[in-house]
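Page 47, continued from p. 46.
Same chain as before, 125 aa.
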Amino acid sequence: MDEQPRQMVPYAEVRYVAMGQLTIYLVSEDELRMIEIGGPSSTFLNLAIFFLSVAASFFVSLFLSQPTSVYKFSAMVIVTTGCAIAGLVLSILWIRSSKGASNVIKQIRARGITEQVTVKRSGQL
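Result:
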């Protein structure tokens, strides 16, 4: 008969240290997805910073340069105003949606069982 060499299983030492209390929460797929992506708040913040910085730079250039024509000046004012409005709207949206992930986590924790459940281990009295 052919004897196949035995493969050695590496020795692993496992230690169990009691933590006291372990709480397990049930999480739905939607809640997990919301926690993973964090909602649209980061996109709102990035766009708000972009539009507000463009508005600030155009605003400064309006005051530091002499207008060469009415059309260029009015275009600069329109771009400055549009960027400022877009930046403010996106800032408000960011403030309102930034609490999305923390609200989901609060909802999950609110579902926790408040009573103590004792589990009897087998082999112990």
